[in-house]
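[recover] target loaded
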């Protein structure tokens, strides 16, 4: 039997990687900025700023569906050098994995708890013996891939200590 080290400091993670898009009006007296999409100068009255770069309104498009991202809620998503709208990002990279407790899929962008390589629904991240929930920073223990609270973990140790050793 392998007893894993006590685990500390589980992380709560938000997985969404979105970036804001700003629409700026171009000041007539500044020299025109280059567009990161087509590399030409932006001479329009408005330009978009996203990912620390400047874009024509027509050039900041979703790599999948070609929608103009400046118009679609002013958020863009990137992954593997692709610029995507939320819908396509979800479609392509939508699944986080399976919850280690209930083994159901975790939808993308849902908050998850991580412990080592396991991911859990927030609702599933509880002691699997007494159902105690943990707050961020609480101590929890992983044993045989079960999440345990400190009490149950220590009780388990006690029992093992007194159980006859079978080898
Ligand atoms: Zn352009
Ligand atoms: Zn799209
Ligand atoms: Zn779950
Ligand atoms: Zn417990």
């Amino acid at each position: 039997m392998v007893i894993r080290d006590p685990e500390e400091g589980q992380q709560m993670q938000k997985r969404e990687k979105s970036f804001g898009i700003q629409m700026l009006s171009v000041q007539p007296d500044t020299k025109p900025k280059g567009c990161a999409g087509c590399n030409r100068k932006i001479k329009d009255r408005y330009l978009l700023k996203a990912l620390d770069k400047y874009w024509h309104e027509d050039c900041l498009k979703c790599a999948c569906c070609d929608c103009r991202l400046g118009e679609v809620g002013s958020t863009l998503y990137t992954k593997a050098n692709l610029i995507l709208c939320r819908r396509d990002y979800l479609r392509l990279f939508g699944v986080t994995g399976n919850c280690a407790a209930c083994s159901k899929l975790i939808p993308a962008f849902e908050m998850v708890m991580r412990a080592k390589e396991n991911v859990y629904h927030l609702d599933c991240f509880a002691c699997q013996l007494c159902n105690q929930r943990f707050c961020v920073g609480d101590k929890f223990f992983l044993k045989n891939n079960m999440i345990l609270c400190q009490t149950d973990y220590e009780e388990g140790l006690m029992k093992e200590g007194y159980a006859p050793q079978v080898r």
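[recover] notes: The radius of gyration is 24 Å.
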